Amino acid sequence: MKRLLPYLKGYTKESILGPLFKLFEATLELFVPLVVAAIIDNGITGGLGSSYVIKAALILVALGAVGLVFSVTAQYFAAKASVGFATRLRHALFAHVGKLSYTDIDTLGTSTLVTRMTADVNQVQSGMNLALRLLLRSPFVVFGAMVMAFLVDAKSAMTFAVTIPALSVVVFGIMLLSIPLYKKVQKHLDAVVRATRENIGGARVIRAFGKEDGEVKSFREKTDSLSKMQKFVGRITGLMNPLTYIIINLAVIILIRTGALRVEMGDLSQGEVIALYNYMAQILVELIKLASLIISITKALASAGRIADVLDVKCSMANGNIPYTAKESGEILAFDNASLRYAGAGADSVSSLSFAVNKGETVGIIGGTGSGKSSLVSLIPRFYDATEGEIRLWGRDIREYDTESLRHAIGVVPQKAVLFAGTLRDNMKWGNKEASDDAIWSALETAQATEVAKEKGGLDALIEAGGRNLSGGQRQRLTIARALVKQPDILILDDSASALDFATDAALRAAIRKDTKDTTVFIVSQRASSLIYADKIIVLDDGEAVGMGTHDELLLSCPLYKEIYETQFQSGGEA
Predict the structure, then answer these.
(1) How confident is the model over 428-476, as pLDDT tens digits?
(2) CATH class of the structural domain 415-487
């Protein structure tokens, strides 16, 4: 939790005033048993009559009213501080995750990051709110009641001195046992979230293969495991209330018995016994609150530790300090014996790649499924760093460039077309906030998406999250247009036309060749027809380049490319 406290900065006043007003309210509460004792001893048995009782009752009402004001004020400040703290923490966590490399995110796992950013932050917020209101109040009332009991009668108050340490052992012992167990609960929750995410995202695949029963069984196993762990922790924390009740009730029995004997002896008045009993009741109530508070804080501490673990992850990809600058012409990109092995993988996904690309050239990348095509192009914008070898951009190691300026110069259209909730104009401006409407329409025309935009209502058309109100081909064309709006020096099309028909694909490639003459284009595709006119084609097989050259050269020199081409065109004739 200490790691997260800096995010409470800016709410220092609220963090002080919240507990302070709660202490004011608790102080007033400690005077209530004394007023009740005075009513009994002076107003009822002392003969002062109903007027004294009424005056004392009005004092009780005043104490309650002022205490209510203090309590509401404390709640306001505690809520303001905890919500502000959680908001800052959530923003910081989101920003931190955004700065992590793909390798770091792959290692941590998407499902656990989602859980930590939602459920864990909410748990910490709830724990912070309760802590600001009750963490000082409950112990203050407990020890305050003991002090007031000593002021009433020191001999009887010795019962309090024994009871409170015994209760502390129970409460803190259970807390220490619960913290590591709640961390395990959150891990089981991660597994449930991951399974839920996979099943919702892959619902069509599950139904297509008739795997509903298997997935339901797997999900049930994960939820049962979570349920068992929660029940186990619940049984341990559930011991807190009965144990505290046993200790408190034993103390009450001893207190009433000894008090009754001393009243008969004349050492105590009836009002003082009632006051002592009320103080014991206050301790009971506050310890029940404290027990619930400890459980909530234990959960919050477990969640805070999980959040801190993410915040402590340092980005494995060092950022360069040289701003990206383009040149008029020449060799823009060169791979020098570059290899990539993903974290935890047993072999390279891309190995020993060496080639050079000049500005304005179009490079095609083709190969079978899993041959390393996407892995190759992911090295260019530094989504991953080469584990061996070197990649040079304008003659300089790509790792020396500032990552933000580097990626600003590169337009990437990934395999999965992703659009965000908002207007079409908002989506198009992701790469260039200053882009004019004319520039957006020009990019849409190049991407063969003009009709899509007009059909949906123009640039102010609303796009649902993930582009759910668009077909696969429409999403792909719009994501290509979004990349073109950036006017990048390097454009990467990672199998981004797979949902397009051949005629639209051909028109798209022709428009890109015409409108992006100064842009270096990388086209990843499994269609040989998409790469025929590329200046250079790289043929990959199991992560290695088995052929490199133009279409005509590869037909003569690369058996794999020839096989792919003839398989797609069967007769081996013209496209």
Answers:
(1) 999 888 899 999 999 999 999 999 999 988 999 999 988 888 888 899 9
(2) alpha beta
Give the span between the Cα atoms of 238 and 288, in whole angstroms.
12
Burial 409-446 (b: 16+ CB within 10 A, else e): bbbbbbeebebeeeebbbbbbbbbeebeeebbbbbbbb
CA distance 352 to 308: 38
Give the bridge partners for 423, in sequence order: 462
The identity of residue 75, as a single letter, is Q
Closest to 540 measured CA to CA, from 308, 395, 349? 349
CA atoms of 379 and 363, how far apart (whole Å)? 15
Contact 481, 491 (CB under 8 A): no
Superfamily classification of domain 320-409+489-497+520-575 = P-loop containing nucleotide triphosphate hydrolases (3.40.50.300)
3 state SS for 239-307: CHHHHHHHHHHHHHHHHHHHHHHHHHHCCCCHHHHHHHHHHHHHHHHHHHHHHHHHHHHHHHHHHHHHH
* 148: Cα within 13 Å, side-chain hemisphere: 28
Strands 544-549 vs 462-463: parallel, antiparallel or unpaired: unpaired
What is the SS3 assignment for 306-364? HHHHHHCCCCCCCCCCECCCCCCCCEEEEEEEEEECCCCCCCCCEEEEEEEEECCCEEE
Rounded to 10°, the helix 12-38/270-311 angle is 160
Q: pTM value?
A: 0.72
C-beta of residue 481 within 8 angstroms of C-beta of residue 474: no
124: nearest Cα among 27, 32, 3, 30: 3
Phi, psi of 460 (to 5 degrees): -90, 5
